[in-house]
Amino acid sequence: MAARLSGGGGFVIYLAAAAVLVFVLAPLVVVVALSFSTANLAIFPPVGFTTAWYEDVIANEDFRNAFMVSVALALASTLASFAIGVPAAYALNRWDVPGARVVEAVLLSPFILPVLIIGLALLQFMAMMRMRDAATNLFIGHVLVTLPYLVRTVTASLKQVDRSLEEAALTLGAPPWRVFTKVTVPQIVPGIAAGCLFSFMVSFDEFPISFWLANAETMPLPIFLQNSMTKIFDPSIAAMASLMILTGILAVIGLEKLVGLRRAMSI
Amino acid sequence: MTSSALETGGLVAKGAPFPRSAVGVALLLPALVFLIVFLVLPSLILLGYSALTQSQAGDISLPLTFASYERLIFSAAYRRVVILTLRVAFLTSLFTALLAYPAAMVIAYGKPVFSRITMILVVAPLVVSVIVRTYGWQLLLGNSATGGLNWLLHALGAGPTPVRVMYSEWAVVIASVHVFLPLMVLPLSASLGRINPSLNEAARMLGAPAWRAFLRVTLPLSMPGLVAGLTIVFSLTAGSYVTPQMVGGTRGLMLGVLLEQQINTAFDWPMAAAIAAVMVTIALVANVGVGWLSERHAAARLRRSGAR
C-alpha cells in the first residue's frame, strides 16, 4: 500500500509513534544498561563497564540448571502441542465434526481464562491425583498454555490455503491423507514453524503456571529469576534478565526470517 | 461449509467418496481429552471449592455455603480490591488504546521502512518475559533518587526525588500498558490496513482537515480492531498477577495477588476459589459479552442498511 502519512498531520503521527517506541524500549534498555554497571547495586546511574556480572551468572550452576529446565520444558511442551494441536486444527477446519464451535472454544479457552487460575486449578487437581512429579506437572501446565497458539496459527494458515488445489486432488482420486501430506502441508509449513517458535517462547517466558507447579529441584528460569530478585540486588539480576531479552530477540529474528513478522502476528 | 461437508460425509470438499466424520473426531480427540482432563475438570473442581466450608483444621468439605462470595462482595476491604482491579483494567485498556493508535497508523500507512521498524519494536517485547519487563519498570520507577525516572528528572533540574509512582495503582497501570501494548497494536494495525484508502481521500478532497477525516472516517472504521484490543487488554489486565505483585505494593493490590495471598499466607482455599471465580467471570463477561454485543451491533446495522 502507498504511504499515506504525509504533511503536518503525518509528521505529528510519526513523532507520537517515536515517543511510543521510546516507552516500549525504555525498560528493556535500562535492564541491559544496568547489567554492565560496575556498581554493586542495580541503581541509576549505571557506572563504568564490566562483563563480570555475566561471568557470575554463567558460572552459577543454579542459573544454568534453571536455563536447561526452561529449554527442555519449552521443547517438550511445543512438541506435544504440535502433536495434538495440528491434527485438532486440521480436523476443525477441514472435517465435518459435530459441535465444532464448542470444541474450538474449549481449545482456545486458555487464551481467555486467567493463567494464574489455570495454574491454581492444576495444582489442586495434581494434589488430588497425588501427582507429585514437578517436571510432569510443569509439562502438562505448559502444554495447556502453548496448545492454543499452535491451534490458532495452524487454523490461520489453513484458511490461507488455496482450497481449489485440495479439491482438485480429491476429485482426481487422491486419498485424504495424501491430499493432506502432498497438497496441504507444503502450504502450511511456514505457519506451523512460526506457531512452534511462538509456542517455545510462550513456554520459555511462562510465569503464572510454573509459579504454582515448580519446586526447588525443577525450577524454570522465570521462577528462578523472581526468587533471585528477592535475595539479590546487584546487577547480576539485570544480567540474567538481559540473557532472557537476548533469547527473545533471537526468536523475533527467527519469526521474521521464517514467515515475516507481519504474517506471523496477524495469525 | 456444512452443505458440501454433508455431501462428502467428512472432509469438507466436493465430490469424493469419503470416510465418515469419524476421522475428524479421531484427529480432535487427543487435544480434546487432554483439555477436558487437565483444564475443564480441574476448573470445575476449583469452582466447587468456592462454595465449600473450611474447618479450623483446614479440611474442606460440605456444607455448601456462599460465605466466601459474601465476604468478597460485602466486606469493604475485599470490595476495594475488586473495584481497584476493574479500575486498573479500565485505565490500562484506555491508555493502551491511546498509545497504540500512532504506532498502528505508522505500521498500516507509514513508509515501508518505518512501518517495518515499528512493527519489530512493538512486537519484540511480546517475547520477553513479563518478569523481565516489569523488572525494568522497577528500576525505572524506583521511589528513591536512584530510580531511573527520578534520576533523569533530577538531572534535568527537578528536585531530589520528584516522583513517587512505585508501589501504587499508577505503577501497575504504567507497567501493564507496556506489557499489553503489542496486543492492542496488532489488531488495530490490521483493522486500519483494511480500510479502503479512497474513503479517507474522498473526505480530504471534500475539504475535511486531516484530524476531522481521522475522527469521522478512520476512527469509526477501525472499531473492530479497537474493540478486539480493548477486550483482550481489559481481561488480561484484570487477570494479571506478575505486574501488580512486582510494582503494585499494598496500594496497588489486585485480585490475582489477593488470590495468591489467600493460598500461600491465609491458607483459605474456599476464599481463593471464590476470587478465582470472580476473575473468570470478569474475563468471560469481557470476552463473550463484547463478542455478543458487536455481533448484535453488526446485525442491527445490516438490518438498517437492508431496510433502506
Helix coverage percent of chain A: over 70%
Biggest interface, chains and residues, is: A-B, 98 and 105 residues
How many helical stretches of chain A? 12
Shape of chain B: globular
- Rg of chain A is 22 Å
Structural class of chain B: mainly alpha
Structural class by helix and strand composition of chain A: mainly alpha
User: Alpha-carbon distance between the termini of chain B?
Assistant: 30 Å
The biggest beta sheet of chain A reads: none
How would you describe what is shown here?
The complex is a heterodimer of chains A (267) and B (308). With 267 residues, chain A is mainly α. Chain A has a domain at 67-230: MetI-like (MetI-like fold). Chain A has twelve helices and no strands. Chain A has helices at residues 7-35, 52-59, 61-94, 100-108, 115-128, 134-160, 163-171, 176-205, 208-213, 221-231, 236-258, 261-266. The two termini of chain A are 20 Å apart. Chain B has 308 residues and is mainly α. Chain B has a single domain, classed as Orthogonal Bundle (MetI-like fold). Chain B has 14 helices and two strands. Chain B has helices at residues 2-8, 22-49, 67-74, 76-109, 112-123, 130-141, 148-155, 169-193, 197-205, 210-221, 223-238, 242-248, 255-264, 269-307, and strands at residues 53-54, 60-61. In chain B, a hairpin with a 5-residue loop joins strand 1 (53-54) and strand 2. The longest helix of chain B is centred in the C-terminal third of the chain and has 39 residues, at 269-307. Chain B starts with a helix and ends with a helix. Classes of the chains: A mainly alpha (267), B mainly alpha (308). At the A-B interface, helix 1, helix 3, helix 4, helix 5 and helix 6 of A face helix 1, helix 2, helix 4, helix 5 and helix 6 of B.
